[in-house]
Design brief:
The chain is of the alpha/beta class. 42% of the residues lie in helices and 19% in strands. Strands 3-2-1-4-5-7-6 form a seven-stranded mixed β-sheet, sandwiched between helices. Helix 8 packs antiparallel against helix 9.
Length: 269
């Protein structure tokens, strides 16, 4: 089984689990979220993350591509800023696409690899990718493809992660190609520039996103128990698991980034 196949199987299993559906309130989100003062639940934080990224797109409207759309929650959220017929989501999992089509039936969805986009050049005004580019083989190939399918002046917005150096020998097992293990934010910014983008901005959102997720996840089982939505035995078991997951991400993740960039305008002749 390839690393990509292991990754797809892992996510396909996760999105049908009862714990996942309960934690994300059956919203279809599967991201760390943006934990501002308004977010009180993982669903609200996940919505806020999409909103934060969309805010980085200077001009709304036109066509937007949701890369690695998962179960379709991000795609659905995009309808707050874009007409449904202008939104396309892609994924490499048929199971996740089925969920996405159920959640946003008026949007378009395609089975497609982010590093080999089957679209003509200059097709989209915006490209969004939430917590997936570190999986792509490789991120750099995706960036070049995103640039190709964007119209001149179009925007790329992305939520992504940097991982610690000790992960390198185990990166392939963790479904993170070694080529994606860039050392720092400056190197990440340079990758966007090297792909051909301009107006590159990279924000360190580790505290607001990864930090908020870890804090919430660690206390979530006890909170569910107090609300009568989780029995005592399950709450105790879930507390151990949640704290272990929160600790794991704190160990392996170096930084959580939110980035935006623009495709240069083609000079008029």
């Amino acid at each position: 089984m390839t690393a990509q196949e292991r990754m797809v199987r892992m996510y396909d299993r996760a999105i049908v689990s009862d714990d996942y559906r309960q934690y994300y309130e059956d919203s279809g989100f599967y991201n760390f979220g943006y934990w501002d003062d308004q977010a009180k639940s993982q669903r609200e934080a996940s919505e806020a993350l999409v909103d934060q990224l969309v805010e980085k797109i200077p001009s709304k409207g036109g066509r937007i591509l949701d890369v690695a759309c998962g179960p379709g929650a991000t795609t659905k959220r995009l309808k707050r800023s874009y007409a449904p017929e202008m939104i396309t989501g892609i994924n490499i999992s048929q199971a996740q696409l089925a969920e996405a089509r159920r959640r946003a039936p008026d949007c378009r969805f395609e089975l497609m690899d982010a590093t080999q986009l089957d679209f003509p050049a200059k097709q989209f005004d915006g490209v969004i990718c939430v917590e997936a580019a570190f999986h792509f083989d490789t991120r750099d190939r995706f960036l070049r493809e995103a640039l190709r399918v964007l119209k001149p002046g179009g925007s790329l917005v992305i939520a992504d992660m940097l991982f610690r150096d000790f992960l390198k020998p185990f990166a392939e097992f963790g479904q993170v190609p070694r080529a994606n293990l860039v050392p720092n934010i400056e190197s990440y910014r340079n990758r966007l520039t090297a792909a051909g983008f301009e107006a590159v901005e990279v924000q360190d959102a580790t505290r607001a996103c990864l930090g908020g997720f870890r804090r919430h996840l660690a206390t979530w089982p006890a909170s569910e128990r107090k609300r009568g939505r989780m029995k005592l035995g399950k709450s105790i078991a879930a507390s151990f698991l949640s704290r272990a997951i929160a600790s794991y991400f704190g160990i392996v993740c170096k930084a959580y980034l939110m980035a935006s960039a623009r495709k240069p305008m083609v000079p008029l002749h």
